[in-house]
Specification:
2% strand; two-stranded antiparallel ribbon; 4 strands; mainly alpha; 14 helices
């Protein structure tokens, strides 16, 4: 996902009643709340605390890093009694009430992170139950419960269901599954944006291609979580086909992303009245989507572009941005510790509590004892004594024979 859950975007969403795809934002230098000790990043967490924490933990897990206990405890402590997560709870000891804006994206991201870490079945089980309870009649989810379904929210919830061991096609409301909902956002093979996904239809029901929504929806349609690995290599699609199934819609979406990256190897974002700017987060998400769809080779040039230009963006944007780059590296088999000239893992770890030390390597299967070397020394000593005794006995017998000879 793009780092679209920034303060400006969500504040606007709260006013107009619908979340819109937002662009990566530079963290506020003056947070309006105190930064909790276990949280990653120093920016105001009001609108993205759970999201960025979840991505950070998920990225650490893919890189083989064991997160700090207090970082995980901070995330689990953000859950409400009904299983939902809000973007941020400044006082977790205070029960959630109707004024707290819980959301599907934070909840789904937390499920994916905690499931990957393991040992949090009770927490993730409550969260999945809540997500099912707020599913829309079209099979999808909006950012806030009861809001109109959108491609991004439906996709991240689908990934959470898969991560938690659910079968999305069996999670239905009104006879519709998440896959049915995602297909409603898939553009046809004619007109502008061929094969892409829209974030939502407009008031007239028109679908407009959205690269951020497409990257998310490709993962969702494939039934893949945010930490997707590369899918089986697939030949580049020669053309678009009617998106009658989730698999075909995902192929179309991957084709759209591949074409969008082909020229400059990155995607762009634009605000009304502003000049187009490189969209680092969306490019990283597109790389993950392409790799998951079996087109990691088409993402190679984009990965090289990210290696050269994205670390500076991540340094400004915070842990979720580093996490996106780590996940892009993971999906394409790139070493996140040597991402160009950047060690993404080290930089991500530095944004929060120091992770646990690496576990002590387990002994080889053939060495099941807890011998510290003393038993080996003992047997060597015993062997030497036995050898001395045998030699002495042989000499004694030889002398005895010589004395008996005439």
């Amino acid at each position: 996902m793009n780092v679209r859950r920034c303060a400006a975007a969500l504040a606007a969403a709260a006013v107009i009643g619908a979340a819109t795809p937002a662009l990566a934002a530079t963290p506020s230098p003056t947070p309006s709340v105190a930064i909790p000790a276990g949280l990653y990043g120093t920016a105001d967490p009001t609108y993205d605390g759970v999201w960025r924490q979840s991505l950070a933990l998920l990225a650490q897990d893919t890189a083989g890093v064991v997160p700090a206990d207090r970082a995980v405890a901070w995330l689990t402590g953000q859950q409400c009694a009904d299983g939902a997560f809000a973007a941020f709870r400044a006082d977790p000891a205070k029960p959630c009430d109707a004024k707290l804006m819980v959301d599907t994206n934070s909840t789904a991201a937390a499920v994916q992170a905690l499931t990957a870490l393991g040992g949090h079945a009770a927490t993730t089980g409550k969260a999945v139950t809540w997500l099912k309870s707020v599913q829309n009649a079209d099979g999808g989810w909006g950012y806030n419960p009861g809001g109109a379904s959108d491609a991004n929210s439906t996709a991240v919830v689908t990934g959470a269901l898969v991560a938690a061991g659910e079968r999305p096609e069996q999670v239905v409301k009104g006879g519709k599954s998440p896959y049915d909902a995602l297909l409603t956002f898939a553009l046809p093979c004619t007109g502008d944006g061929t094969g892409a996904f829209a974030y939502q239809p407009d008031k007239q029901g028109k679908l407009t291609a959205n690269a951020d929504a497409t990257a998310a929806a490709v993962l969702g349609a494939l039934g893949q979580p945010l930490n997707a690995s590369a899918g089986k290599a697939t030949a580049k699609a020669s053309g678009c086909a009617a998106p009658a199934t989730p698999e075909q819609a995902a192929r179309n979406g991957a084709r759209y992303l591949g074409a969008a990256l082909a020229k400059d190897h990155h995607l762009v974002s634009a605000l009304p009245g502003a000049e187009n700017q490189p969209d680092y987060g969306n490019t990283a998400d597109a790389v993950v989507a392409l790799a998951a769809a079996g087109h990691a080779d088409e993402a190679t040039a984009a990965v090289r572009w990210l290696e050269a230009d994205a670390p500076q963006w991540a340094a400004q944007s915070g842990p979720a941005a580093y996490a996106q780059l780590v996940l892009a590296a993971h999906a394409t088999g790139t070493d996140p510790r040597a991402f160009g000239s950047t060690d993404l893992v080290r930089l991500l770890n530095a944004t929060g509590p120091a992770p646990q030390k690496a576990a002590t390597p387990k002994p080889e299967a053939s060495d099941t004892s807890d011998d510290d070397g003393s038993s080996t020394a003992l047997w060597v000593t015993v062997g030497a004594v036995v050898l001395v005794v045998l030699v002495a006995a042989a000499l004694f017998l030889a002398r005895a024979r010589r004395r008996r000879q005439p």
